[in-house]
Amino acid sequence: MARRSPACVARDLVARGATHGDARQEQRWRVATANHSLATRTADMTGPRVITLLTDFGLDDPYVGVLKAVVLRYCPAAQIVDLTHSIAPFDRLAAAFWLERVFGWFPGGTVHVVVVDPGVGSARRTVAIAAHHQIFVGPDNGVLNGVYATDVHAEAREIVPVALGLPSPSRTFHGRDVFAPIAARLAEGSLMFDGVGDRVTLSDEVLLPPVTESGDVWTGQVVTVDRFGNALTNLLEPPLPGAFEVCVAGRRVPLLGTYADAAPGDILALFGSFGCLELAAREGHAAATLGIGRGAVVELRRIR
Asked: Does 205 map to a domain?
């Protein structure tokens, strides 16, 4: 999968939810670190061993607990952060969407484990990626492609469990048998990133849909609906001044600054805490009220 120049990466960051200031800061960081070693860019073993978990396991079964048990076996000092275990089963798009919006809040050296893996046990590869001063471990099925593509210095390596001294994994639980132990060893420092395996290029699968632009109209779509009923889209604040309105499901929706700017029950649009446009209902469920879900077309129009 091709990676872009710093200028293109800066534009991508804006398109994926970063502010213009974030993009400029990210671009300056790349220039400053372009000649650093891989170890310097991916881990700080003097800091906390932060390991995050993002899965579709839910909390009804012991799968999450077993993941944590394996992490702690290999890295007893790990600080484990549950990003979420409420991704809908097999929903790679939602996993990729949330991963791209949350990883930037974590310190350098954080190791992220992503287990949304409908192809577990198949020929799909298991990989570790060094990108954005952090490490990402998971399947090569598109869920990691966004963080890989937006770092021109990113590097991916294939995980071959037996070559790393792990038993042959089960056919159905690579989170326990591959991702958790490798992530823990990387965080603990007993495995360096360049010792994970051969360098590879990720698959070209792109899960997040693109935004199209025509004049003063940006067209995107709903990507996910959160537990409050807010419909989050792939549209970001445009780099142009002016007033805007949002069109969805055959109706115009006012673009406001906060939920409280609308009357209780009213539909509104706003740019939320992760930078993306969302449709909301004050103290209500916007997706149900509008009758929309993933894939619903949303237009952001500049009206002056």
From this structure: no
Report if residue 102 sits inside a domain.
Answer: yes
pTM: 0.83
Shared domain for 118 and 221, answered yes or no, is no
pLDDT at 25 over 60: no
Q: Quick check: 158 and 126 in contact, CB under 8 A?
A: yes
**Percent of the chain at pLDDT exceeding 70:** 85
284: domain CATH number? 2.40.30.90
Asked whether 221 and 248 are in contact (CB, 8 A), the reply is no
Query: Do 186 and 233 belong to one domain?
Result: no
195 lies in the same domain as 223: no
The residues that bridge with 55 in the sheet, in sequence order, are: 115
Q: Which residue has the tokens 């091709």?
A: 2
Per-residue pLDDT tens digits for 178-194? 999 999 999 999 999 99
Looking only at the bridges linking them, the beta strands covering 217-225 and 231-236 are antiparallel
Asked if 206 and 100 touch (Cβ cutoff 8 Å), the reply is: no
- State the chain's mean pLDDT as an integer: 87
Measure the CA–CA gap between 107 and 248, rounded to whole angstroms: 37
Q: Residue 115 above 80 pLDDT?
A: yes
The reported pLDDT for the residue numbered 26 is 44
Shared domain check, 240 and 196 = no
Over its C-alpha atoms, the chain yields an Rg (Å, rounded) of 20
